[in-house]
Write a structure and sequence with these properties.
The complex is a heterodimer of chains A (about 260) and B (about 220). Chain A is mostly helical. Helix content of chain A is about 85%, strand content about 0%. Chain A has helices at about 1-30, 35-50, 55-75, 85-120, 125-130, 135-175, 180-190, 190-220, 225-255. By secondary structure, chain B is an alpha/beta fold. In chain B, a hairpin with a 2-residue loop joins strand 2 and strand 3 (about 65-75). The longest helix of chain B is centred in the first third of the chain and has 27 residues, at about 1-30. At the A-B interface, helix 2, helix 6, helix 7 and helix 8 of A face helix 1 of B.
Chain lengths: ~260, ~220
C-alpha cells in the first residue's frame, strides 16, 4: 500500500512540476522588458552565448572535417564526389548543426544555469531577494532564459557555417574535389527557406526554448542541498538531451517528412 | 568595467553570427535573389516532368538562361505546365540583330503564297503586322524545342532549349510548343521489349489477327 501511495505521489509531483514550469515560462515570456532587464540580458548573453562560442566553433569544425572525410570515402566509390558539397551542407543544416549545438549547449550552458540558480536557492539568495521586494523570476531567471533562447539559434548558424568550411577544407583542399562543383552543387540544392530558415533557425529556436527552460526550471525548483543541486544539474543535461532528440524527430517529420 | 567588456563580447558574438548567416545565405544557398536581368516568364506543356523541380535551371547551348518557377497540372489536358523565368538580356536581339531578323522575315513573307495572292493593300497590312509582332520577340524560334534533360548520368533534371531553324520567333510570355518530357529508363526498356516485335516483316497481318482475336473474346 505504501509503495502505491509513493508512486502516486511521485506522479502527482511530476505533473505539478510541469504545471509550475509552464506558469513560470508564461510569466517570463509575457512580462514587459525593462532597462535593467536589458542590461542583465546582455550580460547573460555574454555568459551563455559568447562563452559557448569556442566549444561550438571547435566542434563545428571537427564535425565538418569528419563529414568531409566520410562523405568523400563513400561518394568516391560511386564516382560522384562532386556531390560532397551537397551532402555536407544538407547534413549540417538540417540535422547536425541544430542538434549537436543544442546538446553542447545543454552541457556547457544549461548545466551552469541550473547549478548557479540552484546554489542561489540553497544559500537563500532567492528568498532574501523576495524579502526585499525584488522578484527573482524577473531579476535572475528571465534574463537567463531570454539569453538562452536568443543565443542558441545564433550558435547553430555559426556551427553550420564553420562545419561547411571544415568540409570544404578536407574535401576541396586535401582530397581534391573540384571547388566549382562543391559550391555549385550546394547552391543548387540548398534552399534558403526550407533548409536554412526552417532546418536550422526554427529547429534550434525550439531546442533553445526547451533546453533553457529545463535548465532554469531545474535550478529554480531544485532541493536546496548540495545533493539536490547535483541531482538537478544531472537532470538538466539528461532531460535536455532527450527532449532535443525527441523534438528533433517530430520537427523533422513535420518539416521534411511530408510530400 | 566588467559590463563594458561583456557588452563588447556580445557585440562580437552578434557580428560573428551575422557573418555566418550571410555566408549561409549567399555562398551555401545561392540566395543572391535571382540574378536574371530583364526577366520575363514563359511556359511549356510536357507529358512527363518526372524529377524536375522549381528553381531548376533552363539552358540554351549550355548557358543558363533562366529558372523554373512553378510546375502545375492542367486538369483538362492532364499535361504538366512548367512556368519558367528567362533572362531578357541573354535571350533577345539587339537593335542591329533585330533589323536583320525583320528583313529575313519580310523576305520570307514575300515568297509565301498568301502574300503573292493578296492585293497590295493587304500586303502592306501583312508587312505591318509582321513588324508589330517583332516588337517583343525572344531569340527562341517557333521550331525550337524544349526538353527535360539530366545533368550527367545521375544528376538533377533541368530544362534544355534546343534552337530550331525557324524565322518566326516566340514573343515574350509565349509558350514553347515543341516539348519532350523526361525520358524514363523504364519506359524506354518497355518500349524496346514490346516494340521489338512490331518491326518484324509479317507484322501487319499478325497484328490484325491479334486485334481480331481480342475483339472476339
Amino acid at each position: 500500500m505504501n509503495a502505491i501511495a509513493l508512486l502516486g505521489r511521485r506522479v502527482i509531483e511530476r505533473i505539478r512540476g510541469i504545471g509550475v514550469a509552464s506558469i513560470m515560462l508564461l510569466q517570463i515570456l509575457c512580462s514587459m522588458p525593462t532597462w535593467l532587464g536589458v542590461k542583465l540580458f546582455l550580460y547573460q548573453m555574454y555568459r551563455v552565448g559568447f562563452l559557448s562560442l569556442l566549444i561550438i566553433a571547435v566542434s563545428g569544425l571537427f564535425i565538418g572535417l569528419v563529414l568531409g572525410l566520410q562523405g568523400y570515402s563513400i561518394l568516391v566509390n560511386v564516382g560522384s564526389e562532386s556531390m560532397l558539397g551537397t551532402m555536407v551542407s544538407l547534413t549540417l543544416l538540417r540535422e547536425l548543426a541544430p542538434v549537436v549545438a543544442a546538446l553542447l549547449f545543454a552541457g556547457r550552458a544549461g548545466s551552469a544555469l541550473t547549478a548557479e540558480i540552484g546554489l542561489m536557492k540553497a544559500t537563500e539568495q532567492l528568498s532574501s531577494m523576495e524579502m526585499i521586494g525584488v522578484d527573482p523570476l524577473k531579476r535572475i531567471v528571465s534574463p537567463r532564459l531570454w539569453a538562452g533562447i536568443v543565443s542558441l539559434p545564433m550558435l547553430s548558424v555559426i556551427f553550420a557555417a564553420i562545419g561547411i568550411m571544415g568540409g570544404k577544407l578536407v574535401g576541396v583542399d586535401f582530397l581534391g574535389v573540384d571547388e566549382g562543383s562543391f559550391w555549385s552543387g550546394m547552391q543548387s540544392t540548398v534552399r534558403f527557406y526550407e533548409d536554412i530558415f526552417q532546418g536550422t533557425l526554427i529547429k534550434s529556436f525550439v531546442f533553445a526554448i526547451v533546453c533553457t527552460w529545463i535548465a532554469v526550471y531545474q535550478g529554480y525548483a531544485c532541493e536546496p542541498t548540495s545533493e539536490g543541486i547535483a541531482t538537478s544539474t544531472t537532470r538538466t543535461v539528461v532531460y535536455s538531451s532527450l527532449c532535443v532528440l525527441g523534438f528533433d524527430f517530430v520537427l523533422t517529420a513535420v518539416m521534411f517528412g511530408g510530400v | 568595467m566588467q559590463s563594458r567588456a561583456s557588452e563588447l563580447a556580445v557585440g562580437v558574438f552578434v557580428i560573428i553570427f551575422a557573418v555566418a548567416m550571410f555566408f549561409l545565405a549567399m555562398k551555401v544557398s545561392g540566395l543572391s535573389g535571382s540574378n536574371l536581368s530583364d526577366r520575363y516568364s514563359m511556359q511549356a506543356e510536357f507529358d512527363n516532368v518526372n524529377g524536375l523541380k522549381p528553381r531548376a535551371k533552363v539552358t540554351m547551348s549550355g548557358v543558363t538562361i533562366g529558372r523554373v518557377t512553378d510546375i502545375t497540372l492542367d486538369p483538362m489536358t492532364r499535361l504538366a505546365t512548367v512556368h519558367f523565368d528567362l533572362d531578357g538580356t541573354l535571350t533577345s536581339f539587339n537593335q542591329a540583330q533585330l533589323k536583320l531578323v525583320q528583313e529575313n522575315a519580310l523576305e520570307e513573307l514575300k515568297y509565301s503564297t498568301d502574300y503573292t495572292d493578296a492585293s497590295p493593300d493587304q500586303q502592306k497590312a501583312m508587312q505591318n503586322e509582321l513588324i508589330a509582332n517583332m516588337k517583343s520577340i525572344t531569340s527562341i524560334d517557333e521550331d525550337a524545342y524544349i526538353m527535360v534533360a539530366t545533368n550527367g548520368l545521375l544528376g538533377e533534371k533541368y530544362l534544355k532549349v534546343i534552337p530550331g531553324g525557324g524565322l518566326n520567333y516566340i514573343p515574350r510570355g509565349g509558350s514553347i510548343i515543341n516539348t519532350q518530357g523526361t525520358m524514363d529508363l523504364e519506359d524506354l526498356i518497355s518500349k524496346f521489349i514490346t516494340g521489338g516485335t512490331k518491326t518484324t516483316d509479317s507484322d501487319s497481318s499478325n497484328q490484325n489477327d491479334a486485334e481480331a482475336s481480342f475483339v472476339a473474346e
